[in-house]
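Entry for the shared binder. Reason: the reviewer on the internal report wants the predicted structure included alongside the sequence.
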Amino acid sequence: MKEDLLFRQLSNTILEKYKDKPVIKVITGIRRAGKSFILRLIKQNLQNDNISSDDIVYIDFEDFENINLDTPEKLYDYIKTSYQNKKGNCLYLLFDEIQELNGWEKCINSLYSSSSMNCDIYITGSNAKLLSSELSTYISGRYIQIPVFPLSYKEYLLFNKTSASSESFMQFLKYGGFPGLSKMNYDDDSFKSYIQGIYSTVLLKDVITRNKIRDTDILEKIIFYVIDNIGNIFSAKRIADFMKSTGRALSVETVYNDLNALQGALFLYKVPRYDLKGKKLLETMEKYYIADSGLRFALLGFKDTAINGLLENIVYIELLRRGYSVTIGKFDSVEIDFVAEKSGSRSYFQVCYLMNSEETIKREYSSLKLIKDNFPKTILTLDDLPEANDDGILRKNLIEWLLEE
């Protein structure tokens, strides 16, 4: 089914920043997050800028009609033939899910480095390894990574043609932000079936097949454990010990390998702890967050007891979307949910569902009060209270924070 090309700001930003710049634009994200969507918007925007359709080559490597382009040599020859009739014009190359073409790296490098062709290259992929050994071996220093996440809450409102409210936010918290949900019937079964389909594709194509994982039962048990512990600190050893208690013995190395495979598929994000006093990253007891909160609903259902962890998940992904690098803060025995850094500046965040007791208020404020620097400190909560500033610590409604520019 043809998807309506609704507006996403990122497509404009990519062209404004990087069009005709001598870097390969690498757009990465979990499957169905909207990478193809954004690539089509880029194509549309190029055409709107009076660039001829003949000067744009768009290839979806998951589309059967492109099955003949099954080697890097055939792709290179196809592009070279396309360029011969351009009279020196820049050829805009838009390659979707490029990792489906074995050996694509050498072809992209050759197109980028060609002295006979002038190409502006945009590629998408559903695996973090695009930016590790596979890609960097050939084009180190020649690419810019552009991460794409499922819809933000602001985009969710746009796609679903609704307004910000406690009700719409709780729907976003439960179902997540995969763009395709806006085309589904509005009921739990339809949403769950759609997200489970995404999960199955990611698991098979980007995790099991790519990493040659044999024990898929163990892999799924690890996934369920992690998703059920969003917002909790744990280690690979703790997962191994848990599996042993259920009668399935496995090594810590196996747990690490499976977690790394899930991170490679951009399904999971590992967030290390940072010792704010010792000013160093800690090597154990990290947190994991998932690419989209709807995955929790699809795999384990939705429970009120999961809300705190899911709120953290939403804030973490939003901080990544806003360009921050993020760690978990540790100050003596106290935890700060997120330490977010960008452009030499730092911000601290505590995330809390409701500050409805003196104990909760004391806990959330006291951890931030231990930090004596002048960087911003914010508590994000769903409480319907006016914004407040207590001794330099800002309390803000989480929904309003998500809607900020």
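Summary line for the report: The two ends are 32 Å apart (CA to CA).
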